[in-house]
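step=encode ok
step=design start
structure_in=
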């Protein structure tokens, strides 16, 4: 295994990144409205966003004993999860009927999509150190560039609380030989804060094939750190570092999934460093940051005579942006903010079948406007130009608005924009020369989308419900076609792929310990066929998905029980048994989980849960087995 060197960088987020702002010399923090860091180049209060968003807080994940981010996303409107086999197995996430590489994923502002295929494998993402997950649906490329075609997920990890230190530990065991343990330490002084955490999860798994008796398990070690410091009254430093070491068992797919001792070992490095400067009494904000990522995969394939093949992908990104805020009180009592920025990015990819490291660069300029009018109408617009050295340049835009209807609990929101997804290194240069030939002449995929929705509060906001309609088209779609010798290559397909649907959500909080959340999504996603014939339903994108989560807190707040159900409707998938490959229909399924916790004292809490309570037999990917009923028990402590 070669040595990997990567650059680290910063998530130079605004001070409001954690919803707190500490005034100079103040002993207590001032609580601000919940904000969205990811919504554009600058943060904004959630209710003022014109986009369809969801925020999942770490406290929710902890209470519901969720261990993987992918399982939390099952309850988000518009999302579909496809996990290959056991926990920790390769996991794809699709939003609003788009492809997996149309979803941009960031951890503390660092892009983590792999340069090889443009996707992020959610099988590696544990939730233990997460403060919150910000999710935006719809095209966001004007802000975040390539891969933000259908949405953005930004995982924000916990940071320390200043002038205090605290620690947390957890241990858990369960069926399928599962063990989980974690340890975290956070705190800081008057002018700095830090947070360090480590988590380890291992499971022996089960046989993901219908043949043989071999168990396929997973091992995951995740280390994370954040550091923030005030270098001067108006100058702050922010840095992050994350490391994941993972090994997952697999089985080869030779028509059917058959027993084999295949495995994939992965190492992931992500880092950031940068600075934020405030000037002109806070009216001018300047940010500079540098980020780096390195993903190394080592694969063993028994079907190739015990062959080993690996690849190493890196991404380096440098940005600068300046924002100026000003008011026009005599004109609609308006507030304005103008932002301009520059971004440089370099991506590299070194696969084992090539004797060289592939590289490409891009330079981008972006501008953003935010406006607030009469304390009720909020607008946001952005324009971006990407200059690429390996394929066509691209221009993207985004416009959104929100109206908080006066004297009501009503929020209207709408957005429109374009997205772009660049060809991946695999699509351009191939991965197995004998069966796949790259196409360096590919063009970026282009997308146009819009949505409109309403959020309404009832009974003094004890009940909050929302509905959003979305529509998005994709052109220059990149697909793989095969010749008579079964040699594949990627091409840009003619025509237009269409995705549209409706997202519904409702949250009930009776303020007596009982809460309930429900979601439903209808998605109609079709692809343009090569011969311009009837449109085919996209694979692994169910038309109907939904979820229901219930929880009740009692015994003076010391006891809590919960139950949730995730419904996944029928969906298409591809079988690889005969050529030409045919499509099959995977049955609908519902996964029910239940659990509870009891706080023994101020420091200790015992908990337990049962996953797949009804022992549902289902497939998320054709011919791959999934977990049956499993049970877990654990102890959580703080100090």
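sequence_out=
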């Amino acid at each position: 295994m070669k040595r990997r060197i990567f650059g680290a960088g910063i998530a130079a987020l605004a001070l409001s990144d954690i919803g707190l702002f500490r005034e100079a010399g103040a002993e207590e923090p001032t609580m601000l409205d919940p904000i969205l860091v990811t919504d554009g180049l600058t943060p904004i209060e959630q209710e003022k966003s014109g986009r369809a968003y969801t925020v999942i807080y770490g406290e929710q994940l902890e209470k519901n004993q969720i261990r993987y981010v992918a399982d939390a996303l099952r309850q988000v409107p518009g999302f579909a999860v496809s996990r290959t086999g056991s926990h920790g197995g390769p996991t794809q996430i699709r939003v609003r009927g788009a492809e997996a590489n149309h979803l941009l994923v960031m951890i503390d502002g660092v892009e983590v999509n792999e340069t090889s295929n443009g996707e992020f494998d959610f099988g590696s993402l544990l939730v233990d150190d997460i403060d919150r997950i910000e999710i935006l649906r719809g095209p966001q490329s004007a802000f975040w560039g390539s891969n933000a075609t259908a949405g953005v997920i930004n995982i924000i990890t916990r940071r320390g609380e200043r002038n205090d230190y605290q620690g947390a530990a957890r241990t858990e065991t369960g069926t399928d030989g599962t063990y989980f343990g974690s340890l975290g330490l956070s705190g800081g002084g008057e002018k700095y804060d830090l947070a360090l955490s480590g988590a380890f999860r291992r499971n022996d798994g089960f046989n993901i094939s219908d043949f043989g008796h071999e168990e396929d398990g997973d091992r995951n070690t995740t280390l994370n750190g954040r550091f923030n410091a005030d270098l001067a009254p108006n100058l702050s430093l922010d840095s992050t570092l994350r490391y994941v070491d993972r090994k997952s068992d697999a089985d080869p797919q030779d028509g059917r999934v058959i027993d084999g001792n295949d495995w994939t070992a992965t190492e992931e490095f992500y880092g950031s460093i940068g600075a934020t400067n405030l000037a002109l009494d806070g009216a001018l904000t300047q940010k500079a940051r540098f980020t780096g990522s390195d993903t190394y995969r080592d694969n063993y394939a028994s079907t190739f005579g015990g062959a080993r093949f690996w690849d190493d992908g890196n991404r380096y990104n440098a940005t600068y942006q300046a924002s100026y805020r000003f008011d026009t009180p005599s004109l609609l009592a308006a507030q304005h903010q103008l932002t301009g920025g520059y971004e440089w990015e370099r991506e590299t990819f070194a696969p084992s079948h090539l004797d060289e490291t592939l590289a490409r660069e891009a330079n981008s300029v972006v501008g953003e406007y935010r406006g607030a009018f009469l304390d009720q109408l909020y607008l946001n617009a952005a324009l971006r130009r990407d200059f690429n050295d390996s394929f066509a340049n691209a221009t993207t835009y985004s416009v959104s608005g929100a109206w908080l209807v006066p004297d009501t609990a009503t929020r209207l929101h709408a957005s429109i924009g374009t997205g772009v997804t660049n060809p991946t290194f695999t699509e351009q240069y191939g991965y197995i020369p004998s069966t796949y030939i790259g196409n360096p002449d590919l063009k970026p995929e282009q997308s146009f989308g819009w949505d409109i929705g309403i959020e309404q509060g009832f009974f003094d906001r004890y009940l909050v419900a929302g509905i959003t309609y979305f529509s998005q088209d994709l052109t220059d779609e990149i697909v793989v076609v095969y010749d008579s010798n079964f040699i594949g290559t990627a091409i840009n397909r003619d025509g237009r792929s269409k995705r549209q649907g409706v997202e519904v959500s409702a949250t009930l909080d009776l303020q007596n310990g009982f809460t309930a959340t429900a979601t439903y999504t209808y998605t109609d996603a079709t692809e343009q066929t090569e011969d311009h014939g009837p449109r085919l339903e996209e694979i692994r994108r169910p038309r109907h998905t939904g979820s229901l989560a219930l929880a009740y807190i009692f015994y003076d707040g010391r006891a809590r029980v919960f139950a949730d159900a995730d419904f996944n409707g029928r969906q298409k998938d591809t079988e690889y048994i005969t050529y030409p490959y045919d499509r099959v229909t995977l049955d609908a399924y519902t996964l029910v989980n239940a659990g509870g916790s009891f706080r023994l004292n101020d420091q200790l809490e015992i908990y337990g849960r049962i996953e797949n309570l009804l022992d549902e037999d289902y497939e998320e990917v054709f011919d791959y087995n999934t977990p049956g009923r499993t049970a877990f028990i654990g102890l959580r402590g703080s100090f």
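step=design ok
step=annotate ok -> The chain is about 5% helix and 60% strand.
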